[in-house]
Design brief:
Layout: H1 2-25, H2 29-47, H3 57-81, H4 87-99
Helix pairs in contact: 1-2, 1-3, 1-4, 2-3, 3-4
Organism: Sphaeroforma arctica JP610
Protein name: Translin
GO molecular function: sequence-specific DNA binding
């Protein structure tokens, strides 16, 4: 059904967040910013949907917000600390902060 499809697409946000962190670990910073922009657009589109008509959509949107926050934090670390810290250490720093992040994944 259309509702099942939307809920499945919403789950993509968590996978994209993990992909972003893995890209940073491999030194591919540009992809992290592309993922950030896509997640922001995706969240904006989902927030325009009628929450009440699809059970579980509100929870999925909250998880999407959490994933976007993690990606934003990673992008922030890259943008601010990228010039100060060598790439291999920055990737390690971002990965460890994403693992220790107090925002739990709910998917």
């Amino acid at each position: 059904s259309a509702a099942d499809y939307l809920l499945g697409v919403a789950d993509l946000s968590g996978e994209l967040m993990r992909l972003c962190i893995n890209y940073l670990g491999g030194g591919n910073r540009e992809q992290c910013f592309i993922i950030h922009d896509f997640l922001r657009s995706m969240l904006s589109s989902f927030e325009a949907l009628p929450y009440g008509e699809i059970k579980e959509l509100n929870r999925k949107i909250n998880v999407m917000k959490q994933s976007l926050t993690k990606v934003e934090n990673a992008c922030y670390a890259v943008a601010i600390r990228g010039a100060e810290v060598p790439s291999h250490k920055l990737a390690s720093l971002v990965k460890s902060s994403a693992i220790a992040d107090p925002i739990p994944d709910e998917d």
